[in-house]
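re the bet — no i am not wrong, look at it urself. input seq straight from the record:
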Amino acid sequence: MEITVGYAAGFIALALFIVQLWCPTIVTFILASILRDKETAATWSVAARAVLSSHWPFMLRAESSSRSHVRTAVYLASISLPTITVITAVTSVVTPIGLYEDVRPSRKITTPSFAYAGDPSAFGLATGPRLNHTFTRVCGNPAPVTCPGETDVSVLEGARITENGSYPFGLKSRVSDSVISVFSSGTSGARTTVSNFFDIEWRQLTWVRSLVADPVYDNGTARSAGRFQQIDSSILQNEYKVVEGLIVDAKDGGLGFRNHTLPTGLPLGAEWTEDILFIEPQTECVNTNLTIEFTVTTETPSYSNKTVGASTGIRDLVLTDRGGFSELNRTYPLFPFDRDNSQTNPELRIRAYKAAWLSNVYAALVLNVTNSLGNTNYSKSWSYMTSSMDKTFPLSVLSSVTDDQYNKLSITTTFGDYLNFMDLSKPEVYPNPEKLTRANFSSINILCEGAGGGDRANYTNIFVSCYQIRGAPTRVDGGYEGTLEAGSRWTSPILTCATALKASIKTVRFQTDGHSTNISTLRATQIAPKEYASPDKYPIWGIENSNAWLRDVVPIWGIISKAYENLPGIKALQQPSIYLPGSRGAFSARTGSLSSLQMEVNLPAAQFPFAALEALSTDEAVYHGYVSDYTGVGSMSMLQRWRELGRTAETAGQIINLIWTDISTSAVCGSRGVLGRRNAEPPEAHAKIHVRPVRRQVRYRLAFAIPALILAVIALLVTVAAGVIACFRGARIRHVHRALRQSSTGRLVTSLIGPPGESDLKMGSKEWSVKNGAREVDLSSLVPLMVSGLKNDSDSGWGDQEEFRGGASSDGYSSLKERPAVTVTDTTTTPLQQYDDDGTGYVYNGQNNQGYAAVSSSGVSATTSSTVTPDPPAPQVVPLQWVMYQGEPYLYYPHQTQKN
């Protein structure tokens, strides 16, 4: 456990509490030891206060802590004092524990200067210098054509597939300044941190010389082009990462573009937010309700056309109908895509469903589960269904297949590849009465994606890539999934997915601790869509709307200024985000692919998003080896993550998003930040960022305040009770004075056995101290004795000024003589003292030298005089009483037989 300031304060409070408990107890013990039996009345009062307020009465079960014969209200009030003391002690220990020191952003806002922060990781080292590279672009397939927005002259002749061109002045690959200016206008000079199309750069750049044999470009000289190498992988980190030029969303997938800078002059760092351009894949998946199942074996089964053959370590490989055939909807999903609204709703789930439906239908035809849809009037369609729920269909295995080729994740753009019906090395094991080939399954791609090279390059045709996923296998026999044990049975779901790419602005919250000038201390703590005050605050996105063929161009897009929203050849959309235009089938013709490790041009924002989608096909990646192995074959942790995400169609799309993000992180970086593009803009163009400097602050954990809250409630209740009593019972401070006088030990003794008139419970404290404080009281006997201030009349049986200890008796009391008979004349001015003599009750009235009066069962007869001449009894253990005799106070010992 870490010892915080709060815990230290709590330990100190505990130690002080122990000392506070121990020292008074020991001091009281010492006081009791040095206290003599004979002390002044004032000494007894002071000593009583100390002893009774200590813990000794409770520990020794003294009568001051007894419950017997105590009025309930008084007992509750008295017992509340130690209870509150205990709660206070606990509070004093527990409450400070909640204190801790934290380094947190303050509420104060400042606008510091920023400075570039490099990346010491592999991403920083692998990001090459920009040098004098320029943005380049080539258009046309197969013959080069003038790119949209450029002024070069090109003349095409012939059909589209075989056309030839003439170029009187040649073609330039460099993107013109006018095009860059238009598609950068929304952020140029705007003092913003939002990147634009031309702020995205390849992490590595190179020079290429007409890779597609286009000598008409640049007079045959080399041009700038991007280069790709996988740098590192963060696929399993599930966090927001900051690397050179990027904010990587490894949780949900997506890249934010920022040339990283840090605020200066803040030793503890700061927190702030920035608006950042993000490109992110969005994927929807649909379960085909078909699964691949197999059993692991160490045997070498023989091949037959009924069972699986080859030494693969796999046997009983089957396709299982989980409703994909038997419960298939028999209506063709027309679902025409709403192209006009594709920028707001790409209908990805509809696309994935169409791909799943077509894939299942084609597979059913191959397996002769049902009949063809191809007859003229469809009257014979679905005329039979040979499958049922959980029915299995044996599958062929390619001769080169090994067991780990099924114990992995598979992502492919080849639908129906699980059938392996083109393995010509083995006899046909599927009926396939319609003689379907891969070409039939290939049509699924264009029907799902919605656009191809023969469609127009405009804002309505967005880039969509469709995939078939075979999920990482899960064990169905309940065994451990970490190893492929012999005899274990496994299953993999088959899903179809559709992915589009969205560009938007997001608000990123940053934190830095100020301990370093590089980005090792920079963290992205939150990424959220930017909030706009109203629709007219949305950015204006411009999309190249040339209506050229998608096979010829990849449209440029970007945030534009309002001045260009009506420019010919540009479609302006004022909305929070856009989906990138293009076509997967025509993408690589003029841009290149990551598999070549070298692109053909330098137009990264129009290349990398699509190239990464193309590269994430796991079969292709493994075959070419240019990206990491995302299948999970070589990584148990990766395989387990894919296994969890692939369990449902709702989470399976995350697999594509994360792989795309991981590949793209190595490909590109952002060049715009607080200091402008490439940190090269003048100060007046720098973005003004408001930051909250980090300060050391004392914080508190509220759970530790519970005892304090309880104590506060008790204090409030006690205060309210005191107020109520003061209002309705007339309680005042004088009542406290009275209680103090009534509970003072010295005052009680002098008032009860002292001379009448010298001490009482109404006498002021100062007056009592002057008159009685010095009187010595002996408490060594069974009853208190006053040992000073007495009149001398020992011959008559009255006490004198000497201590009564002895005399005629041996029990410590004086032997008193018989008093003469007297007549009662006044029984009302002084208290009457009652005693027994031979069983007869008498009272003594000491006023005016009077004597005894008879006592009857009905009380004292005040008008009757009687003579009392008792014989002096043996001295008894009874209290001594003060009486008035001849106008002076005397200590009287009544002769009686009443037991004390």
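see?? Confidence is low (pLDDT under 50) at residues 301-312, 790-880, 893-900. told u. also The radius of gyration is 51 Å. so pay up
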